[in-house]
Amino acid sequence: MSRTVVVTGGGTGIGFAIAAAFAAAGDDVIITGRRTDVLNEAAAKLGDNVVPFVCDATNVSHVSKLPEYLPGSQVDVLVNNAGGVQGFQYPETGDLRALAEHWKADLGANLMTAVLTTHALEKLFRSGSSVIHIGSFATDRAQGSYGAAKAALHSWSLYLARVWGPRGITSNVVAPGYIADTEFFGPQPPPGFHESRIGETFLGKAGHPDDIAGAVYFLASPAARHITGTVLHVNGGALTTR
What we know:
The protein is of the alpha/beta class. The protein has a single domain, classed as NAD(P)-binding Rossmann-like Domain (Rossmann fold, 3-Layer(aba) Sandwich). It starts with a strand and ends in an 8-residue tail after the last strand.
C-alpha cells in the first residue's frame, strides 16, 4: 500500500535523493521548494507519483496552502529537509542589525521551515506516521548561528516525540556530516576543503545524498516504529557518539 510522503527542499541534493527513495517504493511524494523550474525538473525525473509544490517554507501563507495539494486525507511521512547556511549573505561587519538578520535567516531556514510545515500538516498525521528532520553534525562543532539553529531543531524534535508518542507518531533527526554532490557549500568551496572534510572521517570518504536517504527511509519503515526522540548521525565517523 502506497504512503503519502512530503519532502521539503526536495528538488536537489539530499531532498531529491530522499524523494527518489520513496518514489521508487511506489509512494505518493510531494516535493516542495522555492524554484519552480528546479521542482518541475526533479518531478519529471522522479516519476508520475511525484508532485511538485512551489513553496517558501518560511512563508506562512505558502505553507498554509500545502494540505490542499495532498492526494489524500493523511500524511504518512514528513521529511523536513529544507534549510542550509544563510549566513553567507550577511558578512560579519560588527553591525548589530546585520548580526540580527544573519541569525534570523539561519533560524528561519533551518528551524522555522520545519516548525511551520509540521504544524500545517499536524492534523493529517495518524498513528504510524513518521516525522523526520534533517539536522547536522554542526550542532557539536562550534558552527555559530547555523549550528545553533540545527541544535534547536534537534531539541524541538525531542519535544514532538514526547508530545506525539501517545498518538503513535514518531519524531527523529538524521544528522548528516560532510555530504558531497549538493548545493550546500556553494559553487566553489575553498581549496582543500573537500580533502580536509574527508580526512576527518574514519571511513576516509565523503558521504553522498543516498546515504542520508537510506537512513531516512529506515526511520520511516515498520522496522523503526520503536525509535523516536533520537538523532541518527550519518557522518562516516567524523563525529562519534556513545
